[in-house]
Request: fold
Amino acid sequence: MKTNRDRPGLSRRNFLATGAASVAAMGVIAGGCKKQDEDVEAVKPEETAKGPAGAKGPLPVGVQLYSVRADCAKDLPGTIAKVAAMGYDGVEFAGYYENTAQNLRKMLDDNGLKCCGTHTAMETLSKENLQATIEFNQTLGNKYLICPWLKPAEENAKQAWLAYAERFNEVAEVIKPHGMYVGYHCHAHDFHALDTGEIPWEILFDNTASNVVMQIDTCNTMAGGADPIKYLKKYPGRSQTVHLKEWSATKKDAIIGEGDVKWDEVFAICETTGATEWYIVEEEKDAYPPLKAIELCLQNYKKLRS
Reply:
């Protein structure tokens, strides 16, 4: 099974290109009315969680807005209001639809939502663009800068992954004083062995510092032939945000709770050794209209936790 984001036409590589440019362009705007670091510090799970971070019990649940990207493109304020009405605690951005950070923050504040992350292209984490990215996310009140897609050419792939690891380590040190974290979101290809027999996901996280976030996506991991539970256990304390997405070997349109993901085990690890602070729903299948799909996912999640 191939997930939607592993289809070239729907990957975030193109979708995020405008977002990367927007962050760079907005650096001047963000710098002009820059939020203080305490805005980022204010986004603590204790403030929105139904229990303290690390404790057993439900964590705050956000939604990756890529799930409803067509709705966001038409009416971002209205879509964010609908997400809040469903009962979500926060949103993770994947593109900003030409809005300033100040406008985005107001949309969230007006609806009682937090920013639980941004999917930000590797370009926005470059030395040239990192300061603008920091300032933009300070205004959002976001501390999780997650790169959503890396797929180096097969030739010298291991060296490319090691270079990515080095850059993640550098970024992690620069943003640490701001209370921020950098990380990487998985896709199926991240679990396909290279010619050397090594797994890209393992190359990356074996060579990054413990404060580089491992954002597991349960469906993408299983679509790549791997076990998300194995990796949640292998890298304890590195799963501060986790994407909840169903995978099924027999039901292609399964949403959360209807497939093969061992949710009880996922939740148990996340809420103990995983150090998870946010669950983030992402749904990209075609069985339902996007807004209906994420609403059903949240309802099913709540049923699993009841």
Q: What stands out?
A: The first helix runs from residue 12 to 15. The longest strand covers residues 114-119. The CA atoms of residues 253 and 287 lie 6 Å apart. Confidence is low (pLDDT under 50) at residues 1-11, 27-56.
